[in-house]
Amino acid sequence: MSDAIEKIEKQEGLPPEHTQPPYSLWQLVLYFLKLGTWGFGGPIALVGYMKRDLVEERQWISESDYKEGLSLAQLAPGPLAEQLAIYMGYVHYGVLGATLTGLIFPLPAFLMVLALGWAYTLYGGLPWMQAIFYTVGATVIGIIANSSYKLTVKTIGKDWLFWGIYIVSAAVTVITESEKISLILAAGVLVWLVKAPPKWRIGQRLSSFAFTPMLAILAIPTATAGTLWNIFIFFGKAGAFVFGSGLAIVPFLYGGLVNELQWLNSEQFVDAVAVAMITPGPIVITVGFIGFLVAGLAGAVVATLATFLPCYLFTIIPAPYFKKHGKQPGVAAFVEGVTVAAIGAITGAVVVLGQRSLVDIPTIVIAAITLVLLLIFKKKLPEPLIVLVSACLGLVIYPLTH
């Protein structure tokens, strides 16, 4: 009888109630609170920390569960590290575990960006604050350029189709100064059709698994009244299209916030990305800083919740069915196409943001030095340390150049 119950639970994606995990829910929550406080290095580093701590050292999570969570995080839209954290909570403690880990992991970084947003709003016009972001903005361009390079080398390879998608996506981002979601989805469909030509049944599964939730979000009408509602709608759409690296949200946010809605100017946007670089946890937490600039504390809370809500839903809803359908060739091919297009958009964003931040010889030199150092030392040189040094340089260089 117990075997039959366990079989049903597995089919429904629920953790077996009679299986006692080697840790309590609160131990897991405490772990993600610490990781969110000290976890620098971006999504790849955070994902690596989880594997080292939860799988290899503490053995709380099995290797197979970790790999399944990572695959789902790569498949569905949403910041990679946050989705994996949610799935780790789901493994043994279901929706409650997923909810708590999903909330607690970005919380420390959110509180930090709130403090930085308050300081930026209060002192943004002071010379010392301008001096810091003068050089930090250039450093951020170097960091994003390095991330774009690594993602390109790792993902694109020698595949002619991938290179075509990558170049088109980068060019469109540079020309339009925004990320075209329709182009990214079209890239996923193209790779799916070319590399894993589907039968009708597979096509139906892919459509229901990947497209329906996103199209539902696109169909939400834009509110005509209320800044907070507008913030919620915009950042909800943004959160629904962040595939893989949190940097994928940068071109989308730039096109919407600077060009279309004009809630921020180019300098403020680059400063917001810089804030995300110097705080731990998911890079996407920059939305909290942006929300604060637009509408204070309420704007920060709404922007953060709206961005992370799709990530949460796209993890817990398909989780029960992922083992059965997640490894289908059509699904994998669609994800590859979307990822390649997103990387192209990141590369295009380097050019767009660079035009605003690299305004003179000192900023160009700082960006170039940052990129060279990261390429030489790879993982041995922490990005927050580079940003800190850059900020100190700004206090010296800015008064000499202005």
Descriptive notes:
- The protein folds into two domains: 2-104, no CATH class; 109-401, no CATH class.
- Helix content is 79%, strand content 1%.
- It has helices spanning 2-11, 25-38, 42-57, 63-75, 80-104, 107-123, 127-155, 160-176, 181-195, 200-218, 227-239, 249-260, 266-278, 286-316, 319-325, 329-357, 361-377, 383-401, and strands at 78-79, 243-244.
- Helix 12 packs across helix 16 and helix 13 crosses helix 14.
- The longest helix is centred in the last third of the chain and has 31 residues, at 286-316.
- With 402 residues, it is mostly helical.
- The protein has a two-stranded parallel ribbon with strand order 1-2.
- It is globular, with a radius of gyration of 21 Å.
Helical run tally: 18
* Percent of residues in β-strands: under 5%
End-to-end CA span: 77 Å
Category by helix and strand content: mainly alpha
What's the order of the H and E elements? HHHHEHHHHHHHEHHHHHHH
Low-confidence stretches: 4-14, 201-225
